[in-house]
Write a structure and sequence with these properties.
The complex is a heterodimer of chains A (about 280) and B (about 350). Chain A is mostly helical and about 280 residues long. Chain A contains 13 helices and no strands. Chain B is elongated. Classes of the chains: A mainly alpha (about 280), B alpha+beta (about 350). The interface between A and B is medium-sized, with 22 and 25 residues.
C-alpha cells in the first residue's frame, strides 16, 4: 500500500480525541488541581475538610453499602434473565425490549417514578390501604425508616440499571457456542454444574465489562438517591453536589469528585485482576 | 457394550419433516455411518439419539433400555462434535477427564483413564496445555480422547473430521478406525463424505430427504444401490444412468441387448464408470468420447452413450482421444436397473446375457 495515506486514520479519529480532550481531560485536570488548592493554602486542606465533615463517613458507608448490595443483585438478576431469554424462541425480542425499557429513562425520572410509588400518598400506600394492610399513610422514605429507605433506593436502582448488565450478558452468552453446553450435558453435567463449570467461566469477559461499568456507575449514584431520600441518605456524589451548589465550596466538591474517581479506578483495577482471562483460555 | 434400536423416529420442525419414520438397528460393537447430503436429516437423527433433540414420534432403545424420554447424561453415551467443542478454559487433561469428573471417579482412576485415552490418541505431551495452543487436528484428538476416556457403550460422532485439511483427515481416519476397533465401541458416525463412510463403517445408512434409502455394507451400497439417489451419490465418478425402454423383455442399446428386469418399461440403466471396459475392437456399447482427463491412476473419459452423458474410467495406458467413438463391454451382473417412475432398483434378471 502507498504510504501517503498514513495520516488518514489519525485525521479521522482527531475530532473525537479533541472533543474528549477538551471536555474530559481538561476538566479532569482542573478538578484535580482544584481539589489540591485549598483556601488555607495547604495541599490537603480540602480533603481534611471533606473527611472532617459529619456526613462524610455516612456517605462513604451508604455508597459502599448500596454498591455492595445493588451490583451483585443486578448481575445475578441479569444472568438469570439472560439465561431465560436465551431459552425463549418466539417473542424473544419483545421480552428483551420490555426488559430494557428502563434504559431509556433518565435516572432522575426513574427516581421520581419510584417516589410516586413509595411516597406517603403514593401507589404502594394506596394499594396496601385498599387491601386493608395499613390503617393510614405510612412513611417508607423518612429518616425514621432507614431500612425501608435503603430498600426503596435499592429497588429503584435495580429496576433502573439491571438492563445494561442484561444487554452485556446476553451478548456474552451469544458468543458461547451451544456445543460447549451440549458436550457437558452429554458427558454427564447437570444443569447447575453446566452453569458453574461451563457457562460462568466462559462468560467471564462479559461479566468483567458489566461489573466494571455497573460498579463505577454505582459509586456515582446520585439522582435516584436524591429523588427518594433527599438529605436523609447522604452518598458521595450527593455530597459533592451539596458542597458545590449549597455550600459554594468548589474545592471540597472537587475533593469528593477525585475521591469517587479514585474508588472507581481501584474497583476497575480489582476486577481486571480478579476476573482476568488468560489469552490461552479464550475460545 | 450396547446395541441401538431406532424405531420409527420422526421429527418435524413446523411443516418441515426432517425425519420420516426412520428405523435402524445397530449391533453391539458395530460401526454404522449415516451418509447423505446436507439437509438429509443425518445430524438431526444423531442429535435425537444423543438426546440433544427430541423426536416428534418413535423410540430410541440403547442396550435394551428405552431412552426416548431420558436426558443426554442418562443415556450413557459419548459424542464427538463437528467443531470439537473442547472446553477452552480447561487444560487438555481436564477436558479429557471431564466425563470422569462428572461421574465422581476417584482422582487416581481419573489419571489412569485420562492417560490411557491420551496414549491412544497420542496427545500425552499436551495434557498440561490449553486447547487454544493446539492445532485443529490436536483438538480433534482431544475431543475423541474425551469421548473414549469414559469408556462409553455408545459413541456418536458428528462429522468429526470435516474441519481438518485433507491430509490430516486421511491420517485421522485411519487412526480412528484402529482405535475404535480396539475399543469395540458401538459407533454411529455422521458424514457427508462417502470415502470416510466407505473406509470406516461396517455398514452405511444412506440418507436422503429425511429417510434412509439403503442400509448395507460399503461394498453392497456401492455395487448394488437400491435407489437412483444412492447410485448417484456414492462412487466417484457417480454411477451413470442411461434412460432405456424395455421391449418384450429386452433392452437394446446400439448393437447390444440385455435381458430386461421384471416390472417397469421405462428404465434407468445404472452403470459404474469402473465396470465398463474398452473392448478394443469397437464392439459393445458405443461411447462417444468428448473429454479425456488423465488422473494418474486412471483416465477419466467424459462423453455420451446414445446421446446421454456418461463418465467412464479407463486404464491409464489406454490410448483414447477426444472425439473418438469407442466400444464398451460391460458385465451384465454388475448393472443396476432402476424403475424410472419410482426411482427404485429392480431385481437383476437371473439369466442376463442374450
Amino acid at each position: 500500500m502507498p504510504t501517503r495515506a498514513n495520516w488518514i486514520p489519525y485525521a479521522l479519529i482527531a475530532p473525537s480525541v479533541v472533543f474528549l480532550g477538551a471536555l474530559f481531560i481538561v476538566p479532569l485536570v482542573q478538578t484535580i488541581w482544584l481539589s489540591f488548592s485549598s483556601d488555607d493554602g495547604t495541599l490537603l486542606g480540602n480533603y481534611a475538610r471533606m473527611a472532617g465533615d459529619l456526613n462524610f463517613s455516612v456517605a462513604i458507608r451508604n455508597t459502599f453499602m448500596l454498591t455492595l448490595v445493588v451490583v451483585p443483585l443486578q448481575v445475578a438478576l441479569a444472568i438469570g434473565m439472560a439465561l431465560m431469554i436465551s431459552k425463549v424462541g418466539k417473542g424473544r425480542d419483545l421480552i428483551l425490549w420490555v426488559f430494557t425499557i428502563p434504559l431509556g429513562i433518565s435516572d432522575l425520572a426513574a427516581g421520581l417514578a419510584w417516589l410516586a410509588i413509595l411516597q406517603n400518598s403514593g401507589y404502594l400506600n394506596s394499594a396496601l390501604y385498599g387491601l386493608g394492610l395499613i390503617q393510614g399513610q405510612t412513611g417508607w422514605l423518612s429518616q425514621e425508616t432507614p431500612v425501608t429507605l435503603f430498600i426503596g433506593i435499592v429497588l429503584a436502582e435495580v429496576w433502573r440499571a439491571t438492563a445494561i448488565v442484561l444487554v452485556i450478558v446476553i451478548a456474552g452468552l451469544q458468543l458461547i457456542p451451544k456445543e460447549f453446553s451440549e458436550a457437558a450435558e452429554i458427558f454427564g453435567a447437570k444443569p447447575w454444574t453446566r452453569f458453574c463449570k461451563i457457562t460462568l467461566p466462559l462468560l467471564k469477559p462479559s461479566l468483567q465489562s458489566a461489573l466494571i461499568l455497573r460498579t463505577v456507575l454505582a459509586f456515582e449514584v446520585f439522582a435516584v438517591v436524591y429523588a427518594l431520600g433527599g438529605t436523609n441518605f447522604p452518598v458521595l456524589a450527593g455530597e459533592a453536589y451539596n458542597w458545590q451548589n449549597i455550600n459554594q465550596n468548589y474545592g471540597v466538591a472537587a475533593a469528593y469528585a477525585v475521591l469517587i474517581m479514585a474508588i472507581s479506578i481501584a474497583a476497575t483495577v480489582f476486577y481486571l485482576r480478579v476476573l482476568r482471562v488468560r489469552p490461552e483460555q479464550l475460545p | 457394550m450396547a446395541d441401538i434400536v431406532i424405531d420409527r423416529v420422526s421429527k418435524h420442525f413446523g411443516d418441515f419433516h426432517a425425519l420420516q419414520e426412520v428405523s435402524l438397528n445397530v449391533g453391539d460393537g458395530e460401526f454404522v455411518a449415516l451418509l447423505g447430503p446436507s439437509g438429509c436429516g443425518k445430524t438431526t437423527l444423531l442429535r435425537i439419539i444423543a438426546g440433544l433433540e427430541t423426536q416428534s414420534s418413535g423410540r430410541i432403545v440403547i442396550g435394551g433400555r428405552d431412552v426416548s424420554a431420558l436426558s443426554p447424561r442418562e443415556r450413557g453415551l459419548a459424542m464427538v462434535f463437528q467443531n470439537y467443542a473442547v472446553f477452552p478454559h480447561m487444560t487438555v487433561f481436564e477436558n479429557v477427564a471431564f466425563g470422569l469428573r462428572m461421574k465422581k471417579v476417584p482422582d487416581a482412576e481419573v489419571k489412569r483413564q485420562v492417560e490411557r485415552a491420551a496414549a491412544l490418541l497420542h496427545i500425552e505431551p499436551y495434557l498440561d496445555r490449553y486447547p487454544a495452543k493446539l492445532s485443529g487436528g490436536q483438538r480433534q484428538r482431544v475431543a475423541v480422547a474425551r469421548a473414549l476416556a469414559v469408556q462409553p457403550a455408545v459413541l456418536l460422532m458428528d462429522e468429526p473430521l470435516s474441519n481438518l485439511d485433507a491430509l490430516l483427515r486421511l491420517e485421522m481416519r485411519t487412526e480412528l478406525k484402529a482405535v475404535l476397533r480396539e475399543a469395540g465401541t458401538t459407533t454411529i458416525y455422521v458424514t457427508h463424505d462417502q470415502t470416510e463412510a466407505m473406509g470406516l463403517a461396517d455398514r452405511i445408512a444412506v440418507m436422503y430427504g429425511g429417510k434412509i434409502d439403503q442400509i448395507d455394507t460399503p461394498l453392497s451400497v456401492y455395487a448394488a444401490p437400491t435407489t437412483r439417489f444412492v447410485g448417484g451419490f456414492i462412487g466417484n465418478p457417480p454411477m451413470n444412468f442411461i434412460k432405456v425402454k424395455a421391449e418384450s423383455g429386452t433392452v437394446r442399446i446400439g448393437p447390444v441387448s440385455f435381458v430386461a428386469p421384471a416390472g417397469g418399461l421405462d428404465l434407468d440403466l445404472g452403470l459404474r464408470g469402473e465396470d465398463a471396459h474398452l473392448s478394443g475392437d469397437g464392439s459393445g456399447l458405443p461411447f462417444d468420447v468428448r473429454v479425456v482427463e488423465p488422473m494418474g491412476s486412471h483416465l477419466l473419459l467424459t462423453g455420451s452413450i446414445e446421446g446421454q452423458a456418461a463418465r467412464i474410467v479407463a486404464p491409464p495406458t489406454a490410448t483414447v482421444r477426444a472425439g473418438e467413438r469407442v466400444g464398451l463391454t460391460v458385465d451384465p451382473s454388475r448393472l443396476t436397473w432402476i424403475d424410472t417412475s419410482t426411482g427404485r432398483a429392480l431385481a437383476r434378471p437371473q439369466d442376463s446375457t442374450r
